[in-house]
């Protein structure tokens, strides 16, 4: 059986191994994960920017917010006629909401496979040995013990390094931060 991942890993090695080699601490490549998180965030943010009509999305969300406010007000007043009228209008809004959700999935169809391949590469490379030691406050604020408990339940074993996190949680922290910065820079009106 031919291993179809070998050429993919070869291509990803050609792209990411130079980044890994430039990391000041290749044995614990936190900077490499940060750079990869930036690249992935850039790809997904740009895909969202150009594949989703942000103005239409914001307009539909404002319309839905206004509709919900009118419905709550009518329910508080006990206005049966207004509630019936709004419920008739709700069907059309739900169709718009479904179309909006479909539009929001377009970037995922474009970015899903490359991101999964990058995850597989990270898990198979030296990045998988990464351990970041967090300050105690940050460790507790991001609920790291909960993630350790979930990981030990799913994969067995225990977290042995106090206040330490692995590459995946470090990647998620970096990606979240980078996405927020890129969304702001690219002019998104709403947050993550």
Provide a quick synopsis of the model:
With 192 residues, this protein is mainly α. The chain has seven helices and two strands. The two termini are 42 Å apart.
Given the structure, what is the number of helices? 7
Amount of beta strand: under 5%
**End-to-end C-alpha gap:** 42 Å
Instruction: Sum up the overall morphology in one term.
Output: elongated
Category from helices, strands and their pairing = mainly alpha
Q: What is the percent of helical residues?
A: over 70%
Low-confidence stretches: none
Strand line-up across the major sheet: 1-2
Overall number of strands: 2
Largest sheet: 2 strands, antiparallel
Radius of gyration (Å): 22 Å
What do these coordinates show?
The structure is a single chain. It contains 7 helices and 2 strands, in the order ααααβααβα. Strands 1-2 form a two-stranded antiparallel sheet. Helix 1 packs across helix 2, helix 2 runs antiparallel to helix 4 and helix 2 packs across helix 7. The radius of gyration is 22 Å and the shape is elongated. The model has no long low-confidence stretch (mean pLDDT 83).
Give short descriptive properties of this protein:
192 residues; 2 strands; 2% strand
Sequence-ordered SSE layout with sheet pairings:
Elements: H1 5-22, H2 30-51, H3 54-77, H4 80-124, E1 132-133, H5 136-141, H6 144-155, E2 164-165, H7 167-185
Antiparallel strand pairs: 1-2
Helix pairs in contact: 1-2, 2-4, 2-7, 3-4
């Amino acid at each position: 059986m031919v291993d179809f991942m070998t050429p993919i890993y070869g291509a990803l090695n050609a792209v990411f191994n130079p980044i890994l080699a430039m990391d000041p601490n290749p044995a614990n490549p936190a900077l490499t994960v940060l750079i990869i998180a930036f690249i992935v965030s850039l790809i997904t943010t740009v895909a969202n920017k150009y594949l989703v009509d942000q103005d239409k999305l914001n307009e539909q969300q404002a319309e839905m917010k206004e509709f919900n406010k009118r419905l709550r007000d009518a329910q508080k007043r006990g206005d049966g006629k207004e509630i019936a009228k709004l419920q008739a209008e709700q069907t059309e809004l739900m169709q718009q909401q479904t179309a909006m959700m479909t539009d929001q999935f377009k970037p995922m169809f474009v970015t899903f496979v490359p991101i999964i391949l990058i995850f597989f590469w990270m898990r198979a490379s030296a990045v998988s040995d990464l351990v970041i030691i967090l300050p105690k406050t940050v460790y507790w604020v991001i609920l790291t013990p909960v993630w350790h408990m979930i990981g030990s339940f799913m994969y067995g074993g225990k977290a042995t390094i106090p206040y330490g996190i692995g590459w995946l949680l470090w990647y998620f922290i970096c990606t979240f931060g980078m996405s927020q910065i890129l969304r702001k820079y690219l002019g998104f009106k709403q947050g993550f």
